[in-house]
Design brief:
The protein is an all-alpha fold. The protein has 21 helices and two strands. Pfam families: Na_Ala_symp. Its main location: membrane. This is Alanine:cation symporter family protein.
Length: 479
């Protein structure tokens, strides 16, 4: 029965991504790139400037902290093991080419990330001292559908709380197989599950401010150290870089590599890695975007756009360069952590696998915390109950503990399907509401051209919650 169910989920996942979701993500990204006049490139310097703006007071979440929450969720074990799998899976027809399509789709998807995060800011709410929002909120407020808002919230909770968080714990534990050959049959899965569950509990029971404090401190450090190792390996093999880049572009446009079998083609693997890892258009990151207190919705749209570049252009590329310059042959039979650990072992000795193991645990923990924040926001959308929330947190901690010691082929396929369905709901919503986000962007550009620090008033643009983006809010930023 389990095998049949897993097979069904696998077939459904392949159909959903191969024939519907990937195409819809790409078309949506291209559409918004055109409609925003390539906002991800045109306003990239402005996004960097906005990122440095200070908090208005000591309580609210800053743009940088909201960015780190979303980046914590995006940057997970998939950025290491996932890239290795994409290259190894496509190697029979051109594994190098998958990297190019990963880059291209990240650049296109950044426009969708801008739209969804801007909408999340427009329709956010104040719950106690915290700002909350996301697709469930703008589906209810802007499209007038509480039912579809709840559908989205349920899909996100099931996917992130019980699917991806359990899977992150499992992936973190499997990195120990390098040191413990019989890891699965030892006591270590219990130890790993207990440690990750305890750390997760300490983080999530502290609320959004503790989550933002942890991620804003942990994510930049771990990303910088990981990128530093990638740069070291790149510089060490600098003579091979032109050959590597030539292979990436050559295989990206090789007809056999592009079209020989959808599942293993470099296009499919690159698109899956690029869009799936950075979540642009998926509807998850807007939940973090809504948490920031900013003077104009577009500011957080620009900042969240950066997370796509951090995830794919920086972190995923670091992994790809480590692998392709390592001198270790690409073997379709050696994927995931085995390929990565072999690559760094060949370049920096025994320190390499140890570093990767530590990195996997840090990446997994940051994702556990970032993913939980998304689920809490959506749980409160369905029912704002303190008792219910605490019970929900207990189940999330339990999922992390159990995840470290289970076989997750079925849960992985289930999470894929849930995330695919979640993305479909969100993509339809942002396509219907995209015109509103464009009007908000137009207002931002007009204020910038007038030499102002853009401050938003919903009454002047006709988009967003007028009770949130009111005159009182505007005066706070103009003082």
């Amino acid at each position: 029965m389990t095998t049949w169910f897993n097979s069904l989920l696998g077939e459904l996942s392949n159909f959903l991504y191969t024939y519907i979701l990937i195409a819809l993500l790409v078309v949506t990204g291209l559409y918004f790139t055109f409609r925003t006049k390539a906002v991800q490139f045109r306003l990239f310097p402005e996004a960097i400037r906005v990122l440095g703006e200070k908090k208005r007071d000591g309580r609210d979440i800053s743009s940088f902290q909201a960015l780190m929450i979303s980046t914590a969720s995006r940057v997970g074990t998939g950025n290491i093991a996932g890239v290795a799998t994409a290259i190894a899976t496509a190697t029979a027809v051109g594994g190098y080419g998958a990297v190019f399509w990963m880059w291209l789709l990240a650049l296109v998807g950044a426009a969708s990330a801008f739209i969804e995060s801007t909408l999340a800011q427009c329709y956010k709410e104040k719950h106690g001292e915290d700002w909350v929002g996301g697709p469930a909120y703008y589906i209810q407020k802007a499209l007038g559908s509480r039912k579809w808002g709840v559908v989205f919230a349920v899909l996100l909770i099931a996917c992130f709380a019980y699917g991806f968080n359990a899977l992150q714990a499992f992936n973190a534990g499997t990195s120990l197989k390098y040191y413990i050959p019989h890891y699965a049959d030892s006591i270590w899965p219990l130890v790993v599950g207990g440690i990750l569950a305890a750390l997760t509990a300490v983080s999530i029971f502290g609320g959004v401010r503790r989550i933002s404090a942890i991620t804003s401190g942990l994510v930049p450090v771990m990303a910088a150290v990981y990128i530093a190792l990638g740069l070291f390996i790149t510089v060490k093999n600098i003579g091979q870089v032109p050959v590597m880049l030539s292979m990436i572009f050559q295989q990206a446009f090789d007809p056999k590599a592009m079209f020989a079998g959808l599942g293993a083609s470099c296009i499919m693997q690159g698109v899956k890695r690029g869009l799936y890892s950075n979540e642009a258009g998926m509807g998850s990151a807007p939940n973090a975007a809504a948490a920031a207190d900013v003077s104009h919705p577009v500011k957080q749209g620009l900042v969240q756009m950066l997370s796509v570049f951090i995830d794919t252009i920086l972190i995923c590329s670091t992994t790809a360069f480590m692998l392709l310059l390592s001198g270790v042959p690409i073997d379709p039979a050696v994927k995931d952590m085995g390929y990565v650990q072999a690559a760094v072992l060949n370049q920096v000795g025994e320190f390499g696998p140890l570093f990767i193991t530590v990195s996997i645990f840090l990446f997994a923990f940051s994702s556990l915390v970032g993913n939980y924040y998304y689920t809490e926001t959506n749980f409160k959308f369905i029912r704002d109950s303190k008792t219910g929330l605490n019970l929900f947190r207990v189940t999330c901690v339990a999922a992390v503990f159990l995840g470290a010691q289970m076989d997750f082929s079925t849960v992985w396929n289930l999470a894929d399907v849930l995330m695919g369905l979640m993305a479909l709901v969100n993509l339809v919503a942002i396509l219907l509401l995209g015109g509103q986000a464009l009007r908000v962007l137009r207002d931002y550009n007009e204020q910038r051209r007038a030499g102002k620090n853009p401050v938003y008033r919903a009454s002047e643009v006709g988009v967003g919650d007028p009770e949130i983006w009111n005159e009182e809010h505007a005066r706070k930023w103009e003082e």
